[in-house]
């Protein structure tokens, strides 16, 4: 297909003389199966996170963080948050988790064997989960 010649006298001075680039349109991709982004985000932000210090304590003291313990910890943090707590000790089966409720972050963990003579400071609540 040949193009008709363009008369330069009919073009404005600012108009480009080259033809506009060809636009490539990608084919529509079918939606991928799985949960929606909003659902994944809600699941990820609903749980608690562990600080590096807390992870060290959990590993060093061999504290079991199974799914049941984690669920009870999350429920305890949610209860503290509902009451307006900012920093709380959440007790799960004798293990104490010091949690920044606002950030939903476990700051440290103390098992029953290391709890003797332990003093928790800078907390405003305690939850037995």
In a few lines, what is going on in this structure?
The protein has 129 residues and is an alpha/beta fold. 27% of the residues lie in helices and 19% in strands.
Largest sheet: 5 strands, mixed
- What overall geometry do the principal axes of the alpha carbons give? rod-shaped
> Structural class per helix/strand content?
alpha/beta
In whole angstroms, the N-to-C terminal distance is: 77 Å
Q: How many helices?
A: 3
What is the spatial order of strands in the main beta sheet? Answer: 1-4-3-2-5
Strand content: 15-25%
The stretches of 5 or more residues where confidence is low (pLDDT under 50) are none
> What's the rounded overall pLDDT mean?
82
What series of H and E elements makes up the topology?
HEHHEEEE
Oligomeric form of this entry? single chain
Task: Estimate the helix proportion, in percent.
Answer: 25-40%
Radius of gyration: 30 Å
Q: How many E-type strands?
A: 5
């Amino acid at each position: 297909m040949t193009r008709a010649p363009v008369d330069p006298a009919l073009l404005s001075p600012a108009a480009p003389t080259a033809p506009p680039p060809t636009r490539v349109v990608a084919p529509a991709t079918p939606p991928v199966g799985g949960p929606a982004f909003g659902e994944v985000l809600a699941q990820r932000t609903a749980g608690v996170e562990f600080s590096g210090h807390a992870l060290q304590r959990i590993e060093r003291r061999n504290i079991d963080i199974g799914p049941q313990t984690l669920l009870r910890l999350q429920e305890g943090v949610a209860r503290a948050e509902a009451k307006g707590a900012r920093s709380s000790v959440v007790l799960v089966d004798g293990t104490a988790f010091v949690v920044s409720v606002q950030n939903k972050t476990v700051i440290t963990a103390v098992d029953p064997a290391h709890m003797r003579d332990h003093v928790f400071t800078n907390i405003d609540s305690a939850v037995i989960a």
